[in-house]
Design goal:
Low-confidence stretches: 1-18, 432-443
Strand content: 15-25%
Largest sheet: 7 strands, mixed
CATH architecture of one domain: Sandwich
Distance between the termini: 6 Å
Radius of gyration: 25 Å
CATH topology of one domain: Tumour Suppressor Smad4
Shape: globular
Structural class: alpha+beta
Length: 443
């Protein structure tokens, strides 16, 4: 295709063998699927069934594909016309700037870039795999995993998510894909629709976190530490040198900083008696359970892992204390933070960025002794040009903040039109009326 430059910009593949080009991600992985509708927002798609090309560059805006689970196959219909039953269906994008809308029956619609491969899983339900460029996937992860409005927030999340993905690239290889879209891997609930998130992701291109030996580290993260992160061995089995408990006052006064849960005295004490065989008739044991204090993080309560108590009572974190009210006969559990507490606090990161702390200092704060590695083989000239165009789109969007965007005003569509005009040696003017010829292309 003629758009080699734009393809390079969007793919952003690193020349180093340590980096992935494309990944396969199972989407709607925690949902039982029997019928899926696919429509198209941007670009055109080929349709392959059992490796046979049924339709070539004909699927686009106004077309709808129905994929219905049959007994041992997938029924394929397009705009109401039945094309047959097949064991595998592939919707393949004809170019980088293609967007498909995936709407499983009974589920909220999502949009994705890249290709879609549909098969039947072991239970004979539909299995959807998004075959997509690695950095495109990564931007979708960042959008799904963190909130905020400052670019460095997304840069930090992109670095830790890239590091995790590259370290765990074969996590689901036995299943025929790399990752799922659930928190079991990393959330990937939509394509990246925000140019500021894409900007932060692209600014981090080629950046990962390594230990002193140059190996990719594990990069767990959580919503809010409550004021102190946890040692890895206090939550999981392994004690990792870069996952040490550190003070984290940056997580104070954020959305998930504090929480409260109230249970009855009998419910609380009986749980420890029945589940953990504690003798609650002993005053010392009963007092420890009813008046448990954590000024700093602990791992256990009367030798019982706090992770187990958190799971059984569905608490937001293990960083909690208890008080007993004899008047109401209730136990109040006062907690701090949200999540397992190991590694990076996302809300702590948001606060640190707002205070002007650099993204690399944030990473070093949460991952003790770890190093930020920048791959010198990353195509910086492409990245810098791409970043410049995204920054322009963000600036243009500020003047349209109250307007409802059309499909053509998606950042990917805008970027495509910029490059089309540059190829025609025109100056891009965001205020200029877009014509059909500005966003429909011949290859």
């Amino acid at each position: 295709m003629r758009r080699l430059l734009l393809t390079c910009l969007l793919i952003l593949m690193c020349c180093s063998a340590a980096f992935a080009n494309r990944v396969k991600v199972r989407i709607f992985s925690n949902v039982t699927l029997e019928c899926v509708y696919v429509s198209f927002d941007l670009g055109e798609y080929n349709l392959y069934a059992n490796d046979t090309n049924l339709l070539e560059s004909m699927l686009g805006e106004g077309m709808s594909v129905e994929l219905l689970k049959a007994k041992d196959s997938i029924s394929v219909s397009i705009n109401g016309y039945h094309y047959g039953n097949y064991t595998q269906v592939r919707l393949e994008a004809t170019d980088t700037a293609c967007i498909m809308c995936i709407n499983p029956r009974g589920q909220k619609q999502r949009t994705y870039e890249g290709d879609l491969v549909v098969t039947l899983d072991k239970t004979k339900k539909l299995q959807l795999i998004n075959d997509v460029e690695f950095e495109t996937y990564l931007a979708g992860v960042v959008q799904s995993e963190i909130y905020g409005s400052q670019t460095d927030i997304f840069r930090v999340q992109a670095i830790i998510s890239r590091t995790w993905a590259l370290r765990n690239i074969n996590k689901h290889s036995k299943d025929g894909y790399n990752f799922c879209d659930h928190v079991h891997c990393q959330a990937y609930l939509n394509r990246c629709v925000r140019p500021d998130i894409m900007l932060g992701t692209m600014q981090s291109s080629g950046e990962t976190i390594v230990d002193s030996a140059g190996n990719l580290i594990e990069t767990p993260f959580h919503s809010n530490s409550g004021g102190q992160t946890a040692n890895s061995e206090d939550v999981w089995r392994s004690a990792l040198p870069y996952l040490r408990s550190v003070p984290d006052t940056f997580s104070f006064s954020m959305r998930q900083s504090n929480w409260v849960k109230v249970v009855t005295k009998n419910e609380w004490l009986n749980y420890f008696a029945k589940t953990h065989k504690l003798d609650i008739t002993q005053d010392s044991i009963r007092d420890s359970l009813l008046n448990f204090k954590q000024d700093t993080r602990q791992a256990k309560l009367l030798n019982i892992p706090l992770t187990r108590i958190r799971m059984d009572f569905k608490l937001k974190s293990t960083f909690f204390s208890t008080t007993y009210d004899s008047t109401t006969n209730n136990v109040t559990i006062n907690g701090h933070g949200y999540g397992h507490g190991v590694g990076l606090s996302q809300e702590g990161t948001i606060r640190m960025v707002s205070l002007g702390i650099s993204y690399d200092s944030i990473i070093r704060h949460y991952y003790t002794g770890a190093h930020l590695f920048r791959d010198e083989n990353a195509p910086k000239n492409y990245v810098e040009n791409y970043i410049k165009q995204i920054e322009q789109i963000i600036e243009d969007d500020k003047h349209k903040s109250t307007q409802v965007k059309s499909k053509k005003e998606d950042w990917l569509g805008q970027l495509f039109r910029m490059y089309d005009r540059e190829e025609r040696e025109e100056v891009y003017d965001a205020k200029k009326q877009d014509l059909e010829s500005d966003w429909q292309y011949e290859w």
